[in-house]
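Worked example 2:
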Amino acid sequence: MKSPIRILLVDENPYFLAAARDFLRLQQNLNVVGVAGEARGMLEQIQQVDPQIILLDMNVGNHKGLDLIPIIKEAAPCAKIVILTILEEEPCRTAALQAGADAIVGKTDMSRRLLSVIAELSTASNRAG
């Protein structure tokens, strides 16, 4: 039996964090191993829980999510980063991917797309590793 995919949620909105955590916990193959509402907490969580997938908001406290991507890549080089955003325009998508995100999912589209994106990234990671 495969181990559940370890997920870290990072978003400054506590209501969104709770809703996303509850949504993901309903999935048998996913394990929400941590949540963080700001950059420092995120880095502590990364060190403690070794996430495979990090779901990162475009803005985290006083930081832009895109500016945190290089820091995340250094702290957790094998983790896949999915940007979650309400900004779904093409320039936003392009900026996220150029910054090093592995995928971008609109928050309004999350219930329809997020699980397939996580599955794709996990499969790609397993093939590479």
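The chain has a mean pLDDT of 89. The chain has one domain: 5-128.
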